[in-house]
Amino acid sequence: MKAKLATLTIVGLAACSLALAQTNPAEGASAGEVSAPSGVQPGAVIPLIQFQDVPLTTAIENLARQAGINYILDPRVGYGQPDEKTGVIKVQPNISIRWENLTAEQALSALLINYGLQMVDDPKTRISRVTIKDPAALEPLQTKIIQLKYAAPSNVISSVQTTLTDKRSKVVPDVRTSQLVVLATEKELGAVDSLIERLDIPPKQVLIEAKLFETSSNPKTSKGIDWSASLGDASLQMGQGQVVTFGNNALPGTEPSSTPILDPGGSGTVIGTQENPGTIGGILSNPKLLYSPNSGFTPETFFLNADGLSAVVHFLNQSADAKVLATPRAVTLDNETADLSVTRAYPIFKNTAGTQGSPGGSEVTYTNLGTILKVTPRISANNYVNLRVIPEVSTLDSVASKIVAGTRNEADIYAIRKIETQVMIPSGNTLVLGGLVSDASRKGSTKVPILGDIPFLGLAFRNDKKERNQANLLIFITPTIVQDSDFQANESAAEFLKTPSEDISEKPWTAWDDGKPWDWSKRGEAEFK
Question: Is the dihedral of CA 230, 232, 234, 238 positive or negative?
Answer without folding.
Answer: negative
